[in-house]
Amino acid sequence: MGFSELGRYMVCEDEIETVKTGDIILGYDFKCRYPSYRGAYLCNILELRAFIDGEEIPQRNIRFGVNDKFFLLSEIEYMFKEYWFTGVKAIVRIIDDKGLAPGDHKVKLCMKHKIPYTGYFGNYVICDDECEKTLKVKG
Asked: Which of 35, 47, 108, 128 could be bridged to 6 by S-S, CB 3.0 to 4.6 A?
């Protein structure tokens, strides 16, 4: 199994969860796994794109959560001490005060990342992984 084979497991089967404070909708979460058989520091993620029902989510509306912390996508490149362990489900939070309608939605995640232990003489294997699954909104 090559590196990109694991990309098909990147989006987890867990339901989409609406994020609220009181009665105010802040957005929604879905979960993902790092698409490799080893974990990596977050700075190895070069690009992360999310699509819901075929529509790309603006980068400014995406937060990435792992190890009980959330990061802006613009911060990820500096996260050389934050490790994403194999099998740990990270949270992709979409900031959207409308939330998602009940029912099924197509969730697609695209990640460009380098495989850190392949970096000989500064040259890394770069993977482009994508995964799309139909997930239900919890509730």
From this structure: 35
Query: φ, ψ for residue 78 (rounded to 5)?
Result: -100, 0
Measured CA to CA, the distance from residue 53 to residue 64 in angstroms comes to: 20
Query: How many other C-beta atoms are found inside a 10 Å radius of the C-beta of residue 40?
Result: 19
- Check if the beta carbon of residue 95 is closer than 8 Å to that of residue 70: no
Instruction: Delimit the domains of the chain by residue range.
Output: 3-136
Exposure on the CB side of residue 110, measured as CA atoms within 13 A: 11
pTM of the model: 0.91
Q: What CA–CA distance (Å, rounded) separates 55 from 39? A: 29
Place of tokens 């996260």: 79
Q: What pLDDT is recorded for position 100?
A: 96
Which ranges of the chain have pLDDT less than 50? 1-2
Q: Are the C-beta atoms of 46 and 54 separated by less than 8 Å? A: no
Q: From CA 98, how far away is CA 114, in angstroms rounded? A: 34
Per-residue confidence (pLDDT) for residue 118, from 0 to 100: 74
| Structure confidence at residue 6 (pLDDT) | 66
